[in-house]
């Protein structure tokens, strides 16, 4: 078995309260620890924040230097809209550096001159693997065009797929030669030799992967557009200790080592805020959103895991939880989750993304217990986006406004706080229609009303129809924006829709000004 050197790259939009490791990245790390610890000789977790990155060139060069130093066999990136620019530049620079260093050199295995045998030194070319929403939702046969410097791509949930890739790469392959080669690399003007053998697979051409890993696409092979799936029951929690299922035998005494218990990837004992999930997928089909799952494909975390996490959370300093479920109150287990939070007396802040039309009496009841008996600070987040019929139809986000009014009244009666979000820059929207949406939601008594600019996320229906709808995008920076306008809800370096047949760029800027004053 060959042991793999893996470098995981996380380029995050880290906000002040966030852990250094995002939840998705942490779930991948926990899965590798559980299932692949015996197949990894090196696992380096690179975490960077790309928010307010003043010099993308310098930033990408530093990342490349760290990767060169690691000498990994496999480099895996999570690609999101906020790190697209950074990822592209890093890949380009890394491939250039590798190409510049293509050579064959010679060395000796003996310590003194004349001893040992000649070693032929080959430059190892790491495989570059990309996953994340920018990959998952890219149209079929477009990935090589978007990312000419990458080798492998995972569509869908990456935990199991990446685990299988590591397993496959570590599987021995017979070779017709017994020649041993080594990899020579320079660091701090010294040369080091790391032995490898040619009896192991050539990972620069891992054709064997194609039919073994669901959701994996390899460059220069047919793109099937299949999404990787995962059994939520098999995933370890990044918030709890992770037990490695297998461990290699000791090379000294050939005695099998006991399973290793790894500490949580996201430790709870030193932080007050976490992001948390209880389910994945969303039953709705909003045309601006990348959640394209159906009721059938949604999955909830197993109740025993959710319960264990709640027990760990309530016995830790954590007092602020943001639940990432796209629609918390649409899953099969959300009521039991609230029951367990009540049982273990969670008293901190709890933010839940919900839908007005799916509010049920039992949901109100349990939230009321948390708020009025335990003094939990619950904040429900409702994405209404627009109340204008034409705008709502094009984004497939119709709201029953009568139900919205009735349920907001119920929430206020039970002292349950809620926030409402809108989007500006929508097709058919005008400054006046945006103001009408604001006026409606302000009358509902929400504690907060926020508005976000429209971004065309890859693979969404709006992104596919942007030319038909006449939507024009721009990548904004602080130079593009008026210095006196706050920019908390504008992400620099990310394309935003700033013009359409129904509003000019100046009118879009007026909507931005209104949004920033909410």
Automatic annotation (TrEMBL):
Its cofactor is [4Fe-4S] cluster. Keywords: Iron, Iron-sulfur, Metal-binding, S-adenosyl-L-methionine. It comes from the Eukaryota. SMART domains: Elp3 (SM00729). Pfam families: Radical_SAM (PF04055). SUPFAM superfamilies: Radical SAM enzymes. The keyword Iron applies. Signal peptide: none annotated. Residues 268-495 form the Radical SAM core domain. One of its GO terms (molecular function) is catalytic activity. GO terms for cellular component: cytosol. This is Radical SAM core domain-containing protein. It comes from Glomus cerebriforme. The lineage of its organism: Eukaryota, Fungi, Fungi incertae sedis, Mucoromycota, Glomeromycotina.
